[in-house]
């Protein structure tokens, strides 16, 4: 219908205006892809077969440990923990984080000025952007990137600048360590407007654990150009095969310019609790506290208390070591299935994702793809269509990695699909069994 339509009543003509979009929305929603149909909606369970095994989305299908759930129940049964906590976070949780992380950072953390509890890691990151970005400030992020970075930056006036990790070109499986940074490319990305660089290690979706040498080179660039570094380390407890997890904040001169992001959801299989934290110098934490206080005021009080118990008990129970080994087993179940198929993949050093090269998957030319996946990825080719085809015909869902790139760089990741192994062993075995049916579609 046109913006105006004529209605005739008793011979008179009246004009009725279209009132469906009276108030224009902010341009930042478009710039941050917030209004576009995202990949999570396309590959939502509602759009896939009812029995499709979801290895696309990175949430667990198993509960937190019993002793952590019990702590949550006990917190709900107390009066004080059902009410507002301090905007900094409950003191018990901040104290637990101090005890847990001080040795890792090589300093005695201050619970009042250097630790901030947030409503999940994502809200913590968003609050840092609110606190530090001016209109037009540039933020460097490595591709493929966690998709929430983009709207969080643009909503706060920032301009994303993309530096891709380059995948290896040889055949067969390879390590996530082989996805490399071109440091000349990184240096060229820095301009007088650059304010911040985001480092994600272990990295989602590649599973790369940045080496000390790589982080030292990033640190040198940050020091030279006076950049704030946001180090997203939510998978810090999931580092495999004796790889070293280096915290960039511990490198010489980096504490004063780095904020480190953590997550109880990743640590305790409780992603819906939305309890995260930031660790850094007072010069970063205090402005961020001012921002988060105005965004959410405080985070979920009873689940903060439960997370505190979890962190207090984790090392005593040997929980994190046991959990890491269990995730390594899950990873090995999934990759063994890919080995059996003879398909190329990236073996992750950390996190809970495997990237599978799906460029060899073929489907009938007249296969009925929905409009939502047409045109996603370069020249209407994989991975979006391949991921949809695998989900519909094999019954295992994944996420196309091209969705974690800017439009100019989608070709770098378009051969890959991300499979999550944060599922119970039985589910992964069923998924691997189904994936063997891919053989008839591999050229």
Structure summary:
This protein is α/β, with parallel strands linked by helices. The protein has helices at 28-31, 39-42, 66-76, 91-105, 120-132, 149-154, 183-189, 212-225, 264-267, 282-295, 301-314, 319-341, 384-393, 410-413, 425-435; strands at residues 4-9, 12-17, 53-54, 115-118, 138-143, 159-164, 174-175, 194-200, 228-232, 258-263, 276-279, 345-347, 353-357, 396-397, 399-400, 416-420.
Description:
The protein has 443 residues and is an alpha/beta fold. It contains 15 helices and 16 strands. It has helices at 28-31, 39-42, 66-76, 91-105, 120-132, 149-154, 183-189, 212-225, 264-267, 282-295, 301-314, 319-341, 384-393, 410-413, 425-435, and strands spanning 4-9, 12-17, 53-54, 115-118, 138-143, 159-164, 174-175, 194-200, 228-232, 258-263, 276-279, 345-347, 353-357, 396-397, 399-400, 416-420. The strands form four sheets. The chain has a seven-stranded mixed sheet with strand order 4-11-10-9-8-5-6, with helices on both faces. It has a five-stranded mixed sheet with strand order 7-12-13-16-15, covered by helices on one side. The protein has a two-stranded antiparallel ribbon with strand order 1-2. Strand 8 (194-200), helix 8 and strand 9 form a beta-alpha-beta unit. The protein starts with a strand and ends in an 8-residue tail after the last helix.
Q: What labels describe this entry?
A:
single chain; 15 helices; five-stranded mixed beta sheet; alpha/beta; 35% helix; seven-stranded mixed beta sheet; 443 residues; 16% strand
């Amino acid at each position: 219908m046109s913006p105006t339509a004529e209605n005739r009543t008793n011979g008179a003509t009246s004009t009725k205006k279209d009132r469906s979009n009276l108030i224009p929305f902010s341009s930042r929603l478009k710039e941050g892809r917030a209004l576009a149909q995202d990949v999570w909606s396309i590959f939502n369970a509602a759009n896939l077969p009812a029995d499709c095994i979801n290895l696309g989305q990175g949430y667990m299908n198993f509960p937190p440990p019993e002793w952590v759930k019990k702590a949550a129940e006990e917190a709900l049964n107390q009066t004080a923990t059902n009410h507002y906590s301090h905007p900094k976070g409950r003191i018990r949780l901040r104290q637990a984080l101090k005890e847990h992380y001080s040795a890792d950072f090589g300093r005695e953390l201050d619970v009042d000025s250097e630790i901030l509890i947030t409503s999940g890691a994502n809200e913590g990151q968003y609050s840092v952007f609110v606190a530090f970005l001016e209109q037009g400030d540039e933020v460097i992020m490595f591709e493929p990137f966690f998709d929430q970075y983009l709207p969080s930056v643009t909503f706060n006036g920032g301009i994303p600048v993309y530096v891709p990790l380059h995948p290896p070109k040889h055949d067969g499986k390879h390590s996530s360590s082989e996805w490399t940074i071109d440091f000349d490319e990184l240096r060229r990305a820095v301009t007088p407007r650059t304010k911040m660089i985001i480092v994600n290690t272990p990295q989602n979706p590649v599973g790369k654990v940045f080496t000390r040498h790589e982080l030292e080179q990033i640190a040198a660039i940050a020091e030279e150009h006076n950049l704030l570094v946001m180090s997203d380390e939510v998978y810090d407890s999931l580092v495999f095969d004796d790889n070293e997890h280096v915290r960039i904040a511990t490198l010489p001169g980096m504490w004063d310019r780095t904020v480190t992001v953590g997550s109880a959801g990743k640590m305790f299989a409780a992603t819906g609790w939305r309890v995260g934290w930031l660790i850094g110098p007072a010069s970063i934490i205090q402005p961020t506290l001012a921002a988060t206080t105005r965004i959410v005021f405080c985070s979920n009080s009873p689940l903060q208390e439960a997370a505190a118990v979890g962190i207090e008990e984790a090392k005593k129970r040997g929980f994190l070591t046991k959990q890491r080994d269990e995730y390594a087993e899950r990873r090995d179940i999934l990759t063994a299935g890919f080995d059996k198929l003879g398909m190329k993949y990236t073996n992750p050093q950390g996190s809970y994702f495997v990237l599978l090269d799906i460029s060899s998957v073929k489907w009938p030319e007249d296969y009925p793809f929905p409009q939502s996946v047409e045109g996603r990825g370069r020249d209407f080719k994989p991975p979006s269509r391949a991921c949809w085809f695998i989900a519909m015909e094999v019954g295992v869902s994944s996420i196309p990695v091209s969705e974690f790139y800017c439009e100019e760089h989608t070709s770098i990741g378009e051969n890959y699909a991300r499979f999550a192994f944060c599922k119970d062993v039985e589910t992964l075995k069923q998924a691997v069994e189904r994936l063997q049916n891919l053989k008839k579609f591999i050229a």
